[in-house]
Amino acid sequence: MHECTFLSDSPGRTLGFGRRMGKRLTAGSVIALVGELGSGKTLLTRGICGGLGVPPGQVNSPTFILVNEYRGRLPVLHMDLYRLDSLAEGFEIGMLDYLERARSGVMIIEWAEKVEPALPPERLQIRFEVVSDKKRRLLLSNGARYDSLLNELCRA
Questions:
Q1: CA distance 28 to 7
Q2: Backbone φ, ψ for residue 67 (5° rounding)
Q3: CA 23 from centroid of its chain's CA atoms
């Protein structure tokens, strides 16, 4: 497992980091986002989707509908599990089916810790830490599939 840290001092920097990541993602990528409310998970998702060619105005948090689907260079499934109370609820909404569908695209999961046992071990996990009003620390860890991606992102 490879780990690295990215420190963002502005929303624009978080978006740019996400765009760089999105440009490098391949089919079957699963991105698990973990962090408190307002820490930047949806903002990073907008950047990732932008890097995948999804128009920025289309990307919003699916808190109440749970899943948004976007068309870009690869299909994107964007899940927001904030309202889930248990892993069982994750299974009830079809989490495993969505993971299967994501094999041909990219899956981004906000509040991924709520369904962690169901997630594939080969995923890119990003933990958000609020440092100050504008600063965020993103801690990235991964399975071997994402080694080269992390090497590129953490060098830049």
A1: 27
A2: -140, 130
A3: 14
What global pTM score does this model have?
Answer: 0.93
| Domain of 125, in residue numbers | 3-155
Identity of residue 51: G
Reported as a single tens digit per residue, the pLDDT across 2-45 is: 788 999 999 999 999 999 999 999 999 999 999 988 888 999 99
Give the distance, in angstroms, between the CA of residue 6 and the centroid of all CA atoms in the same chain.
14
What CATH number is attached to the domain comprising 134? 3.40.50.300
- What kind and span of H or E run contains 97? helix 95-101
Measured in whole angstroms, how far is the alpha carbon of residue 8 from the centre of its chain?
16
Say if CB 140 and CB 3 are below 8 A apart. yes
Say whether 134 sits in a helix, a strand or coil. Answer: coil
Domain count along the chain: 1
How far apart CA 73 and CA 27 sit, in angstroms, is 10
Give the residues across from 129 on adjacent strands: 137
